[in-house]
Amino acid sequence: MKKKLLGGLLVIALAASLFVGCSPQSKDTSVPSGTGESGAGTGGTGTQESASKAETDETGGKPAAAEKGLVGVSMPTKDLQRWNQDGDNMQKQLTEAGYKVDLQYASNDIATQVSQIENMIANGCKLLVIASIDGDSLGIVLMQAKDANIPVIAYDRLIMNSDAVTYYATFDNYMVGTKQGEYIRDALDLDNAAGPFNIEIFTGDPGDNNAKFVYSGAMDVLSPYIDSGKLAVKSGQKNFEKVATANWSSESAQNRMDAIIASNYGNGTKLDAVLCSNDSTALGVTNALAASYTGPYPIITGQDCDIANVKNMIAGKQSMSIFKDTRDLAAQTVKMVDAVMQGGEAPVNDTKSYDNGTGIIPTYLCEPVFADINNYKELLIDSGYYKESDLQ
């Protein structure tokens, strides 16, 4: 009888200890940080569901960033205003969409960009958004991304000769050049005026595929007038290789413009127009004009609506700049990221134009517009892109 009683007491004690050991108070309810695996492999217990709900509530009803994954964003440099805006917009909108973001700037150094992308891959990024310094220089590191099944979205600059590129998001850069050429055509009234008019040409980095599209768009408009003699390029520099500007550098553009002025426009010869593919080259040209050109300011084009260039526009030193609202490009890229990360296909609107040497890259093109003295307030200030105080 005593043995039966003792056995019964042991059973009761064992049951009590098991009950205490399984109680919610003693259970580890923490969710591993950055793993995105809340409840994985555990049958989705009620406590872990509560933790996940709490994370969702804290993000305003959106899935927590850790659940959506880490996105690597590689920008070429902080030296140009536009890349700072691109990076900031991308980080802000990806974060709002529920992703963690590893944003890096490469100081216009190819080796640095390669190293940063390698680190992004090693650190577990699930997708890469890359604005390349040189479109031909990332083949080896992107092989690592492909081997790790990491999708790659080329951002604004097409990455060449790599089959690891999944999508491309950019503005229509051929249209950028077309609008610049049309602006010069209309401002000089080339279809009606007798001419001839003098023009010089500055485009972008030879390693940036965008520079070639912008140049082609502009020259398709202006070449007929050059061929007919209505537009004269006194320096004789008009082929892409002659007018390209390494790294889109203002200093390089200024040095070249100094030499052109000294050789061709130092004797009172009027310069009527300068086709500049972007604002950094336009800034170099206007600096050179201010230093050594004595005639009236020519028509000068640009791209990006950088603050210094908009101020020059207001002061009459630059005629126009193409406005590419980087908020729109960032928003579209985030949509593409989200679609891919959810296992779907990204929205695109061009499947014919952009061959990176391994095949056509599905692309989404945003449409640029031009800003000048007549509409810059509406485009840049009323839209909230700049504050009026930024331009004073």
Any descriptors?
392 residues, Rossmann fold, alpha/beta, six-stranded parallel sheet, 14 helices, 44% helix, 2 domains
Structure in words:
The structure is a single chain. The chain has helices at 2-21, 46-58, 65-68, 81-96, 110-122, 139-147, 173-188, 209-228, 240-243, 250-264, 279-292, 307-314, 326-341, 376-381, and strands spanning 70-75, 100-105, 127-130, 152-155, 165-171, 197-202, 231-232, 273-276, 299-300, 320-323, 363-366, 369-372. By secondary structure, the chain is an alpha/beta fold. The chain folds into two domains: 67-172 and 326-366, Rossmann fold (3-Layer(aba) Sandwich); 173-324, 3-Layer(aba) Sandwich (Rossmann fold), CATH 3.40.50. The strands form three sheets. A six-stranded parallel beta sheet has the order 2-1-3-4-5-11, sandwiched between helices. α5 (110-122) packs parallel to α6 (139-147) and α7 (173-188) runs parallel beside α8. The chain is elongated, with a radius of gyration of 29 Å.
